[in-house]
Amino acid sequence: MGSTWSDQHRYDLMLEVEIRVCEALARRSVIPVDAAGRIRAKASVDGSRVAEIEAEVHHDVIAFVSAVAESVGEDGRYLHYGMTSSDVLDTTFALQLVEAADQLLEGVSTLMEAVRSRAREHRDTPTAGRSHGIHAQPTTFGLKLAGWYAELQRDRVRLLTARETIASGKLSGAVGTYGVNGPDIEAEVLDGLGLAVEPVATQVVPRDRHAEFFCTLAVLAGGLERFATEIRHLQRTEVGEVLESFSKGQKGSSAMPHKRNPILTENISGLARLVRANSLAALENIALWHERDISHSSVERVIAPDSTIALDFMLARMTSVVTGMEVRPEAMAANLERTGGRMFSEKILLALVEKGISRDEAYRWVQRCALAEGDFRTNAEKDADISRVLDASRLEKAFDIKAALGHAHEVFDRVIKEGV
């Protein structure tokens, strides 16, 4: 990903845009055909030379065009014919963002495969479902992961849409009126580059496109943070259900040899804040003065490489975490037992309702047993009101974990299908 944002790669893309415009002009006899051929053959760009010229002229595109012109000699006068700076800059930026999106899509697909594999592995592994951090009802660890997989499916669709949105360039000149080169040249060049024509450009491609792209990255980063936060919670000493991999010789603390910290997922949580903050900067870039100003430019030079590189790393990191995480079904089973069956309280509540007890009264009976000290099941069996209504076999049925899991397998299978 880093190479996508290197100065040399950006210059190479800018050069390709300039050359293709020259070739389109030559096909229309605006400039000599042999001149366009020589430009294609000889044109090159030296980043250090661009920097030297920019130090004098204080304009990045002028410095770029001047440096390229030096490499082709007299034919250099045809470079940048009828173009404005944003023609080459915005079109190049679109190409870079498309490249970045393609790499991120690959990362999403790789993570999806890792999540799907571990989800299948633990399709039938019971674990405590939690709301507000408190035991709620049983679920399966595979279903947790299936939820991640479903979210990644949505992320992939969002990213594909954002890629399409951002894949627009412009070669319509100053303020977008095609004052020199016509729309036919723009259409031909952009089509050759794999980009769509911005329908109504000012001097720049409107920044709502870029805002959508960076907000999509923020949503994806937020999902990765959700996954990371779950693992961090499950690795807590008091839970101990899932642990990040810990390699031989690895050390968790400079002071405490016993520590095994969730540092990998903590990194992901931290980087998500950066990507999320950058999306706000992209939203601020939408409102430019009149046909353009350059307040967006400095922002994009930071957030584009930072967000895409960070997210690329986050995807690779999460893939490694999911692949190598240590899942402890025995700890999950032990934690299921910690509440003495309290997570089956709804089953008893509904069994009482079925027997004709009002919901409010049944709720108070069950809550009374659940909040009392000791084993919940024993409390319910000894409760005078509950035992008067429910016999031993009906109570036994209420504590059946397979029944409590309900249609979990159906939910799992509609997301992660066998052989798909």
List the defining traits of the structure above.
420 residues; mainly alpha; Fumarase C, Chain B, domain 1; Fumarase C, Chain A, domain 2; Ribonucleotide Reductase Protein R1, domain 1; two-stranded antiparallel ribbon; two-stranded parallel sheet; 5% strand
- Helix/strand order: HHHHHEEHEHEHEHHEHHHHHHHH
Strand order of the largest sheet: 1-2
Overall tally of structural domains: 3
Strand residue percentage:
5-15%
Helix fraction by DSSP (H/I, runs of at least 4): 55-70%
Strand elements, count: 6
The gyration radius over C-alpha positions equals 30 Å
Q: Specify the overall morphology.
A: elongated
CATH class of the largest domain: Mainly Alpha
Tell me the number of helical segments per DSSP (H or I, 4 or more residues long). 18
Give start-end ranges of low-pLDDT stretches.
none
CATH fold topology of the largest domain: Fumarase C, Chain A, domain 2
User: What's the story with the biggest beta sheet?
Assistant: 2 strands, antiparallel
**Mean pLDDT value:** 95
Oligomeric state, counting identical vs distinct chains: single chain
What features would you describe in this structure?
The protein has 420 residues and is mostly helical. It folds into three domains: 2-81, Fumarase/aspartase (N-terminal domain) (Fumarase C, Chain B, domain 1), CATH 1.10.275.10; 86-335, Fumarase C, Chain A, domain 2; 342-398, Ribonucleotide Reductase Protein R1, domain 1, CATH 1.10.40.30. It is 65% helix and 5% strand. It contains 18 helices and six strands. The strands form three sheets. Strands 1-2 form a two-stranded antiparallel sheet. A two-stranded parallel ribbon has the order 3-4. Strand 3 (168-169), helix 7 and strand 4 (196-197) form a beta-alpha-beta unit. Helix 1 (7-27) runs antiparallel to helix 2 (33-42). The longest helix is centred in the N-terminal third of the chain and has 37 residues, at 85-121. The chain is elongated. It starts with 6 loop residues before the first helix and ends in a 5-residue tail after the last helix. The relative contact order is 0.10.
